[in-house]
Amino acid sequence: MSEAKALTVDELFAIDSLLQPEEREIQQTVRKFAAEHIRPHIADWFENATFPVKELAPEFGKLGLFGMHLEGYGCAGTSATAYGIACMEIEAADSGARSMISVQGSLAMTAIYKYGSEEQKQQWLPRMAAGEVLGCFGLTEPDFGSNPGGMRTRARRDGSDWVLNGSKMWITNGTVADVAIVWAQTDDKIRGFIVPTDSPGFQAREMHKKLSLRASITAELSFDDIRLPEDAMLPDARGLAGPLGCLSEARFGIIFGSMGAARDCLQAAIEYARTREVFDKPLAAYQLTQAKIADMAVELGKGQLLALHLGRLKDQDKLRPEQVSVGKLNNTREAIEIARTCRTILGANGITLEYPVLRHANNLESVLTYEGTAEVHQLVIGQALTGSSAFR
């Protein structure tokens, strides 16, 4: 008796049937780009702890991936859901590539778009959308990650200028950025500043010996009496609501992106199990293997449906921050579990860069943590449901 034709992971939940024609076109375009420009090189980039940001940035710009769902200023102006789908396809190749896009568009560009003056938007956004100018986002400090309100970086008035001092850590694109969005304490709460990286007193040092997001540039920034003009400040951001609003945009991309990494792991594990023979029959023919695959496929499908639902809410301007936390918590947590389980199916081969699963699992350790740890999002959801804050 012949075996029935196997479904693909995508076909099991028929997610594609829920997409609009433009969204499907973006999905296929970005998937093709990743297959041609990222996948053939990503194992070497990961092993060598490098990523060709300057070379790929103009290509990302041509695709419209930077600030993709922002309107005007050279941005593509797509739906938020389309942007999420693009994140999914890029992160299916590697989380580091999606992080680079998120930092440029969802953090640096969004800060200028949401909180900048019209002059600031005109000056920076078109070139950033094209990938001609690269940005980074300076919020996290060595001693202040989950509690950004405690930051020590400070900007003080000196006549009509600002003088910036402090440091930031874990800054993606920090050593290759042309401009940094830096958040600092002032006498008027936390404010954001547009800081050209060639400013006297600006230093960026690449961080090495990472075991996660190796195909991503990560830096420590320091500011030593950087003098900035008055119009370097983002006028419409005052307090933590400014940087947190940008983080919510980045988290949205992660909700989709993490499912891309999980999907890539599951596809690799299924293909391996179908061709690997153990005790004279395919590994895929064993009940324990099928149980793992079935459980992972169900969690992947649920995560994709959740991402799509949240995307539709965002497109209707109805997405709440607590719902973003639900998506980030669930999808990163399930993605890393899927990656780890796929590694068990591949056995010893799973620890090599010949297959993507442990690379994805290592990357997802960072994705699970940045833009709010799992614990932070649990407390956000808990506060939303109980009305009581457990943060302090």
From TrEMBL:
This is Acyl-CoA dehydrogenase family protein. Belongs to the acyl-CoA dehydrogenase family. Residues 21-132 form the Acyl-CoA dehydrogenase/oxidase N-terminal domain. GO terms for biological process: fatty acid beta-oxidation using acyl-CoA dehydrogenase; fatty-acyl-CoA biosynthetic process. SUPFAM superfamilies: Acyl-CoA dehydrogenase C-terminal domain-like (SSF47203), Acyl-CoA dehydrogenase NM domain-like (SSF56645). It comes from Antrihabitans stalagmiti. Residues 136-225 form the Acyl-CoA oxidase/dehydrogenase middle domain. The keyword Flavoprotein applies. Its cofactor is FAD.
